[in-house]
Amino acid sequence: MTRIQLAPPAPTTAPGRLAGMPRWFVTLFLTDMWERFSFYGMQAILFLYAVAPRADGGLGLGVGTATALFGLYMALVFLAAVPGAWIGDRLLGARRTTLYGGLVIAAGHTCMALPGAWSIWAGLGLLIAGTGLLKPNMGVLLSDFYGDGDVTRREAAFSIFYMSIQVSALIAPVVTGFLGETVDWHLGFAAAAVGMYAGVLQFALGRRHFGPVGAQPAHPIGAAARRRLFRRTGYLVAVVAGLLGADALAGTLRVEHALIPLGLTVLGVPVLLFRRLLRHPAITPVERLRVYGFIRLFLGSAVFWMIFTQSGSVLSQFARESVDREVFGFLVPASWFQSLHPLFILAVAPLGAWLWVRLGDRLGVPVKFALGLGLVAASYLVMAVVAVRAAEAPVSPVWLLLVFLLQAAGELALAPVGISAAGTAAPAFYRSQMMGLWWLSAAVGAAVGGRIGQLAPALPQPAYYAALALVALAVGLVLLARRVRIRRLLTAGVPAA
């Protein structure tokens, strides 16, 4: 799992230091910090903006539609990393792809800061595309500065990035939430845009310290393949634009018309990728067994993220309507509750790392997955109880603190272990792609969770929360019951200790 180890990395290919850190590392660190600030800042207010009445400057969407929109947005952000990584590896190189991704993200936040429905939809599309370009290639750049033998420093560098992500996620909702909820929604989006422009500027200025790292694609495609790709991409864009245009001219264009096909795409891509992997001529019988074991973890992870990602939509709605948010006469913005999760991640992560080291292999991967699902189930059981009390009067915010604490512990039990399992189960020829395939479980979960969230307005709150808890608990129990079989699949071909 990710280790919380804050030892500074040392440069390997690019000279120059700043405050004891390599200049290239400072550039990457600040770019990632500002990008995460903009991402989490916008995410914290997206759902609340979508359900806010038009008279208050919002989109005026129903809670169900807004929940589906939020879930699909999160899903597409994860999904976009797959083509984004390919573009960096085969077309542009990690350095240019990261820069272009930052510019696209900044343009997306700028669109979100402008009034008008068209600018919101354009902004969301640009944010998805830009994040898909930037995030995977940022990781590639960081890895490329270290040789294969410098594992310790590389892990330390990723640990620092992990901590920076949580700090950004902690601060960003406070800034954008205050501006968006108390002043103007578009001002909150503008704050996210300022953060991303700062990241792009310092990346553009600092990339001169990179030397040759990331300047060229690692596995460039030929000219004929490039032309064929551009031609097919043009056809696809033309078809999509034509369908949307015809829908708009007919006066029948609705948000649902985009949500359904995009959601099906998110669900279909992992199926096609797993099918292609299992039928690949280079895969060995032992590797195929490990992939079958990994698929079981993939499904468990998808259920976890299906429930977990609703914290940004369903729980935001609960915080806005059912929580006593007044503190000394100040009404705490509902979006500020989104800062609780990173706060608890920062607080619990060292304890989690120590606990896994102490336990060693006594708890296998399926058991840790079951624990993560059990914790997120417990969080929604708490919500079911609290929702009963909230029907009578607003409840104390302390209840949401407990909910987010349980979810943070659940993420730390499942997510880092899943990343490690993806590397262990990956066939020799598929190691880099396997990590992208792992994160598609979050895309599937977010997409399905968004659709399920449409049921929330139609069901009593306690029943809805209890149903989510029971689903997570049931899947966790299945993994627990099948733990021996799953562990044998994941360790197929590995000599017994």
CATH superfamily of the largest domain: MFS general substrate transporter like domains
Number of helices: 16
- The domain count comes to 2
How many strand elements?
Answer: 4
For the termini, the CA-CA separation is 21 Å
What fraction strand?
A: under 5%
What percent of the residues sit in helical stretches (DSSP H or I)? Answer: over 70%
Question: Would you summarize the structure shown here?
Answer:
With 497 residues, this protein is an all-alpha fold.
How would you portray this structure in words?
The protein is mainly alpha-helical. The chain folds into two domains: 208 residues, MFS general substrate transporter like domains (Growth Hormone, Chain: A); 231 residues, MFS general substrate transporter like domains (Growth Hormone, Chain: A). Helix content is 74%, strand content 2%. It is built from 16 helices and four strands. The strands form two sheets. Strands 1-2 form a two-stranded antiparallel sheet. A two-stranded antiparallel ribbon has the order 3-4. β1 and β2 form a beta hairpin. α8 runs antiparallel to α14 and α9 packs antiparallel against α13. The N terminus is likely disordered.
